[in-house]
What does this fold into?
Amino acid sequence: MSIEANRSLHGITVIGIDIGKDVFHLVGFDGDGQIVLKRKIRRLALTDVFKTLPRCVVGMEACLSAHFVSRTLRRLGFEPRIIPAKYTRPFVKGQKNDYNDAEAIAEAALRPNLRCVREKTQAQLDLQALHRVRSRLVSRRTATINQIRAFLIEQGIAVRTGSRSLRNSLFAILENRQDELSPRMSDIIVGLYEDWLWLDERIDSLSSEIEEISRQEANCERLMSVPGIGPMISTAMVAAIGSGDAFDRGRDFAAWLGLVPRQYSTGGKPILGRISKRGCKYLRTLFIQAAHIILMRPHNWARFSFGPWLERASQRMHKNKLAAALANKLARIAWSVLRSDKPFDAHRIEVTAM
It folds into this structure.
């Protein structure tokens, strides 16, 4: 006889779900920490099964459908908690299987100091999907350009660095170097160039859509008041963290992005290394790029409230280290703008208006 048949389900305090593609594995604990539920269900039966269960905390690992499952269970009256996968691993007992994973998730969900992933709205998921599609297309475009260069260099033809140089000289090369390029190779390169043009159109279309969203979203407008932050970073940040209430301070957001030094301290002696590179790689890359753009224009530094700090830091730091430090500062400023509902340097604007 199963555990579920032997024990009452009314005392369930927490349920762990191991989310799979077609099936979910459930493990539930009562107030004494005893397993009172152990079941495998089909994905389509999720709503019907949970309607029969008492309302309680439901833990799940952050994965592709976690936000959908979370919203579904919240509508039914449950308290869903989305947990980063690395926080559930220490609770896995024995060998890895779906039930052991669900049990570990349930135990992790009860930890009082556990930092959970904030549930995303459908609008955030849509915006995040736009960024992911655009990022994939940009990678494909870069790969296409590199492949054209590789085929040309195999024929002994080198082109100056930069996509613009390649675009401007490509057809002149095909016309003037016909003795070095076979007709088949020329056709292959022309086909790749047509792929390049198609990717340009798709990327421009997605970029225009993202820019339109940034003009309509109030949080994005405030974020774009921060130096170096434009439609891409503002929309990516809103898609990732919403209003930023998942973090207590800007330092926590910068740490989540992986823009703080990696720490390995013991015996009271702090040992700091390179940046940790944890969290959202895409958003961290955007902030680093924004920092590099600001560093390219030192004549604008005096206009920013952090200009004096940037002047002093530039005299003692390598440019790459300075870019990481500036990205950290921009991330903390951006979080503060989100949480305070005020544009960057609002106090300066108020003083000037008085």
About this structure: The radius of gyration is 26 Å. Residues 218-344 form one domain.
